[in-house]
Amino acid sequence: xxxxxxxxxxxxxxxxxxxxxxxxxxxxxxxxxxxxxxxxxxxxxxxxxxxxxxxxxxxxxxxxxxxxxxxxxxxxxxxxxxxxxxxxxxxxxxxxxxxxxxxxxxxxxxxxxxxxxxxxxxxxxxxxxxxxxxxxxxxxxxxxxxxxxxxxxxxxxxxxxxxxxxxxxxxxxxxxxxxxxxxxxxxxxxxxxxxxxxxxxxxxxxxxxxxxxxxxxxxxxxxxxxxxxxxxxxxxxxxxxxxxxxxxxxxxxxxxxxxxxxxxxxxxxxxxxxxxxxxxxxxxxxxxxxxxxxxxxxxxxxxxxxxxxxxxxxxxxxxxxxxxxxxxxxxxxxxxxxxxxxxxxxxxxxxxxxxxxxxxxxxxxxxxxxx
Length: 371
Ligand code: PMP
Hints:
The protein has about 375 residues and is an alpha/beta fold. Helices cover about 40% and strands about 20% of the residues. It has helices at about 1-10, 50-65, 80-95, 105-115, 130-140, 150-160, 185-195, 215, 245-255, 260, 270-280, 280-300, 315-325, 355-370; strands at about 25, 30, 35-40, 95-100, 120-125, 140-145, 170-175, 200, 225-230, 240-245, 305-315, 330, 335, 345-350. It is globular, with a radius of gyration of 21 Å. The protein binds 4'-deoxy-4'-aminopyridoxal-5'-phosphate.
């Protein structure tokens, strides 16, 4: 049977994935089989998701708004608190408007498949996130892959092909999810302007890490043709996503993005809880930046973001190292193909504002003992 054959093949090649059950989480700690582990692989970069004091405030949001939304936004699921949050998110990203989506995956599928179609073209970074890749495929536009973070290659492709297409978009992660490196947004913005292209930026790992927006990091302003997708389930510590853009684009997505139209609105309490969490972003970002600098120095992996790729090469070695760290009280799963390219299996270490100096030092010492 095909399913069994594939599962056996995955097991033989160290690519089999299984779920690990967490009983409880508190700040940066998770409990598995009653034992406490330090979590160095969460995207909860500002340590907001498992903060009991903040959760108590969220309970107030539930009391006020209930637990569900009851319908899609265009039916009876559009609440004033959704719009209040959208206003705040647009302010953060320095765009005219923002529109909430259920999650980042849905946001990327929705914007790419509605904005681009047959006769259009997308220029996409080689290491973009799976949700952007799937959005490109769903759009039916012609896709040109440019070399990772290479504006010269992108320019060559735009020069050669731009004129054949109507609508064109350049698509990139701002902070790449597996390597933690940063796209050259200033140069991409210039190319988007020069070639009359939309610039679609996935700020999932940038929001609340390198600033409120990756555009702040580069001292740039989003243009009328810029779309910034931000997620709420990472540094912001709740759940959901949004697209920050001009007003006409927001109206367009309300009318055309199928992943916005045909799905239940995020619960209003979640919008309320997200507004609460956003109050903590600025101060915690400072602490996160300190921790990033400390870990970077101690494990000798350069990163300006919360993501540190500790590349070991083959999948078996990555799994073994991850298991040894687990025995010593750290939770850092191995990341293997197809999530990352063949031969670049790694530990994807992430640091948060909630890790203490001692915990970061202990991780660095343990890694150097193990390798
Ligand atoms: N974009 C990037 C770069 C991501 O890393 C992720 C999630 N890992 C997403 C989009 C999807 O966001 P969500 O988890 O909210 O669906």
